[in-house]
Amino acid sequence: MITLRIACALLVASAASGCSKEKLNELVDQAKETATSVASDVSSEVKSATEEAVAKVEATTQQVAETAGDVSGIGDTTGKGMMTLDSPTQFAASYVQLIAINPGRPAVLKISSSKDGDDETFPAFLLQANLSTAGDLNALAGQTVSARLFAQKEAGGTIWFSPEDQPVPVTIAVEQGKVTARIENASVMSSSSSQETAVSGTFECVLHP
Protein backbone atom coordinates (compact mmCIF):
# COMPACT_ATOMS: atom_id res chain seq x y z
CA MET A 1 0.00 0.00 0.00
CA ILE A 2 2.79 2.45 0.92
CA THR A 3 4.80 1.58 -2.21
CA LEU A 4 1.76 2.15 -4.42
CA ARG A 5 1.10 5.62 -2.94
CA ILE A 6 4.72 6.70 -3.36
CA ALA A 7 4.58 5.65 -7.02
CA CYS A 8 1.43 7.73 -7.51
CA ALA A 9 3.13 10.76 -5.97
CA LEU A 10 6.08 10.41 -8.33
CA LEU A 11 3.76 10.17 -11.33
CA VAL A 12 2.01 13.36 -10.22
CA ALA A 13 5.32 15.19 -9.93
CA SER A 14 6.58 14.02 -13.34
CA ALA A 15 3.36 15.12 -15.09
CA ALA A 16 3.40 18.56 -13.50
CA SER A 17 5.69 20.16 -16.09
CA GLY A 18 3.02 19.99 -18.83
CA CYS A 19 0.12 21.44 -16.83
CA SER A 20 -1.31 24.94 -16.19
CA LYS A 21 -0.43 26.86 -13.03
CA GLU A 22 -3.80 26.07 -11.47
CA LYS A 23 -3.50 22.43 -12.41
CA LEU A 24 0.08 22.40 -11.16
CA ASN A 25 -1.00 23.81 -7.79
CA GLU A 26 -3.74 21.22 -7.60
CA LEU A 27 -1.28 18.44 -8.35
CA VAL A 28 1.16 19.82 -5.79
CA ASP A 29 -1.60 19.86 -3.18
CA GLN A 30 -2.48 16.28 -4.06
CA ALA A 31 1.18 15.30 -3.79
CA LYS A 32 1.39 16.95 -0.36
CA GLU A 33 -1.72 15.10 0.80
CA THR A 34 -0.31 11.84 -0.54
CA ALA A 35 3.03 12.46 1.15
CA THR A 36 1.29 13.29 4.44
CA SER A 37 -0.82 10.15 4.18
CA VAL A 38 2.26 8.05 3.39
CA ALA A 39 4.15 9.52 6.35
CA SER A 40 1.18 8.82 8.61
CA ASP A 41 0.92 5.23 7.39
CA VAL A 42 4.67 4.72 7.80
CA SER A 43 4.56 6.12 11.33
CA SER A 44 1.58 3.93 12.25
CA GLU A 45 3.12 0.78 10.80
CA VAL A 46 6.51 1.46 12.41
CA LYS A 47 4.77 2.04 15.75
CA SER A 48 2.75 -1.16 15.32
CA ALA A 49 5.83 -3.18 14.35
CA THR A 50 7.78 -1.75 17.30
CA GLU A 51 4.99 -2.56 19.76
CA GLU A 52 4.75 -6.09 18.34
CA ALA A 53 8.53 -6.58 18.64
CA VAL A 54 8.53 -5.27 22.22
CA ALA A 55 5.64 -7.59 23.11
CA LYS A 56 7.53 -10.58 21.68
CA VAL A 57 10.70 -9.66 23.60
CA GLU A 58 8.73 -9.25 26.84
CA ALA A 59 6.98 -12.60 26.29
CA THR A 60 10.31 -14.32 25.59
CA THR A 61 11.91 -12.71 28.65
CA GLN A 62 9.01 -13.84 30.83
CA GLN A 63 9.26 -17.39 29.47
CA VAL A 64 13.02 -17.50 30.10
CA ALA A 65 12.51 -16.17 33.64
CA GLU A 66 9.84 -18.77 34.36
CA THR A 67 12.04 -21.54 32.95
CA ALA A 68 15.00 -20.34 35.02
CA GLY A 69 12.74 -20.28 38.07
CA ASP A 70 11.65 -23.85 37.40
CA VAL A 71 15.24 -25.02 37.00
CA SER A 72 16.53 -23.24 40.08
CA GLY A 73 13.72 -24.73 42.12
CA ILE A 74 14.57 -28.35 41.32
CA GLY A 75 15.27 -30.28 44.54
CA ASP A 76 14.42 -27.35 46.85
CA THR A 77 11.42 -29.09 48.45
CA THR A 78 12.38 -32.74 48.05
CA GLY A 79 16.16 -32.75 48.12
CA LYS A 80 18.16 -34.75 45.59
CA GLY A 81 21.02 -37.19 45.39
CA MET A 82 23.60 -38.77 43.12
CA MET A 83 25.34 -42.07 43.70
CA THR A 84 27.89 -43.94 41.62
CA LEU A 85 27.23 -47.67 41.74
CA ASP A 86 27.93 -49.56 38.52
CA SER A 87 27.07 -46.24 36.84
CA PRO A 88 26.09 -42.72 38.01
CA THR A 89 22.52 -42.74 39.33
CA GLN A 90 20.34 -39.72 40.08
CA PHE A 91 17.77 -39.75 42.89
CA ALA A 92 14.83 -37.34 42.68
CA ALA A 93 14.50 -36.90 46.45
CA SER A 94 16.55 -37.06 49.64
CA TYR A 95 14.94 -36.72 53.08
CA VAL A 96 16.84 -36.67 56.36
CA GLN A 97 15.33 -37.65 59.70
CA LEU A 98 16.74 -38.03 63.20
CA ILE A 99 14.65 -40.57 65.08
CA ALA A 100 14.87 -40.54 68.87
CA ILE A 101 13.24 -43.67 70.26
CA ASN A 102 13.41 -42.56 73.89
CA PRO A 103 14.66 -39.30 75.44
CA GLY A 104 18.32 -39.58 76.38
CA ARG A 105 18.79 -42.77 74.37
CA PRO A 106 20.84 -43.11 71.17
CA ALA A 107 19.04 -41.91 68.05
CA VAL A 108 18.83 -43.27 64.51
CA LEU A 109 19.85 -41.16 61.51
CA LYS A 110 17.82 -41.97 58.41
CA ILE A 111 18.41 -40.55 54.93
CA SER A 112 16.13 -41.85 52.22
CA SER A 113 14.63 -41.11 48.81
CA SER A 114 11.22 -41.86 50.32
CA LYS A 115 9.29 -40.04 53.05
CA ASP A 116 7.55 -43.31 53.87
CA GLY A 117 7.06 -46.67 52.23
CA ASP A 118 3.93 -45.56 50.37
CA ASP A 119 5.62 -42.93 48.19
CA GLU A 120 8.63 -44.97 47.08
CA THR A 121 9.78 -44.33 43.52
CA PHE A 122 12.83 -45.60 41.65
CA PRO A 123 15.75 -45.20 41.71
CA ALA A 124 15.53 -45.52 45.51
CA PHE A 125 18.02 -45.58 48.38
CA LEU A 126 18.16 -45.81 52.17
CA LEU A 127 20.98 -44.86 54.54
CA GLN A 128 20.52 -45.71 58.22
CA ALA A 129 22.99 -45.12 61.05
CA ASN A 130 22.66 -45.98 64.73
CA LEU A 131 24.17 -43.08 66.65
CA SER A 132 26.04 -43.52 69.91
CA THR A 133 24.30 -40.58 71.56
CA ALA A 134 21.13 -38.57 71.22
CA GLY A 135 21.27 -35.07 69.77
CA ASP A 136 20.15 -32.98 66.84
CA LEU A 137 21.29 -32.65 63.25
CA ASN A 138 23.39 -29.57 63.97
CA ALA A 139 25.44 -31.63 66.42
CA LEU A 140 26.33 -34.02 63.57
CA ALA A 141 27.97 -31.29 61.46
CA GLY A 142 31.48 -32.35 60.46
CA GLN A 143 31.06 -35.87 61.80
CA THR A 144 31.36 -39.17 59.94
CA VAL A 145 28.92 -41.91 60.90
CA SER A 146 28.77 -45.58 59.90
CA ALA A 147 25.59 -46.43 58.02
CA ARG A 148 23.88 -49.34 56.32
CA LEU A 149 23.18 -48.59 52.66
CA PHE A 150 20.53 -50.06 50.39
CA ALA A 151 19.96 -48.90 46.81
CA GLN A 152 17.87 -50.11 43.89
CA LYS A 153 17.58 -48.52 40.44
CA GLU A 154 14.28 -50.12 39.44
CA ALA A 155 11.57 -52.24 41.01
CA GLY A 156 12.61 -55.88 40.98
CA GLY A 157 16.14 -54.96 39.91
CA THR A 158 19.54 -55.49 41.50
CA ILE A 159 19.90 -54.34 45.12
CA TRP A 160 23.18 -52.84 46.26
CA PHE A 161 23.75 -53.10 49.99
CA SER A 162 26.39 -52.80 52.68
CA PRO A 163 26.65 -55.87 54.95
CA GLU A 164 26.02 -55.32 58.64
CA ASP A 165 29.72 -55.78 59.43
CA GLN A 166 30.79 -53.50 56.56
CA PRO A 167 28.87 -50.19 56.84
CA VAL A 168 29.71 -47.22 54.63
CA PRO A 169 31.18 -43.99 56.08
CA VAL A 170 28.82 -41.01 55.70
CA THR A 171 30.13 -37.50 56.35
CA ILE A 172 27.53 -34.95 57.43
CA ALA A 173 27.71 -31.22 56.67
CA VAL A 174 25.21 -28.67 57.96
CA GLU A 175 25.28 -25.15 56.54
CA GLN A 176 22.53 -22.54 56.87
CA GLY A 177 20.05 -25.22 57.81
CA LYS A 178 20.88 -27.41 54.80
CA VAL A 179 22.11 -30.95 55.39
CA THR A 180 24.50 -32.63 52.94
CA ALA A 181 25.65 -36.23 53.28
CA ARG A 182 28.63 -37.67 51.38
CA ILE A 183 29.90 -41.20 50.84
CA GLU A 184 33.52 -41.66 49.79
CA ASN A 185 35.97 -44.56 49.58
CA ALA A 186 33.33 -47.20 50.28
CA SER A 187 32.11 -50.43 48.71
CA VAL A 188 28.88 -52.40 48.62
CA MET A 189 27.71 -55.85 47.64
CA SER A 190 25.28 -56.68 44.86
CA SER A 191 22.33 -59.07 45.05
CA SER A 192 23.12 -60.23 41.50
CA SER A 193 26.76 -61.17 42.14
CA SER A 194 29.25 -61.81 44.92
CA GLN A 195 31.56 -59.02 43.75
CA GLU A 196 32.11 -55.81 45.69
CA THR A 197 31.30 -52.55 43.91
CA ALA A 198 32.92 -49.21 44.73
CA VAL A 199 30.37 -46.60 45.77
CA SER A 200 30.37 -42.84 46.28
CA GLY A 201 27.61 -40.30 46.48
CA THR A 202 26.34 -36.89 47.52
CA PHE A 203 22.90 -36.22 48.96
CA GLU A 204 21.43 -32.74 49.40
CA CYS A 205 18.76 -33.36 52.00
CA VAL A 206 15.61 -31.67 53.22
CA LEU A 207 14.11 -32.37 56.62
CA HIS A 208 11.56 -35.15 56.73
CA PRO A 209 8.17 -33.42 57.10
TrEMBL record:
Protein name as annotated: Lipoprotein
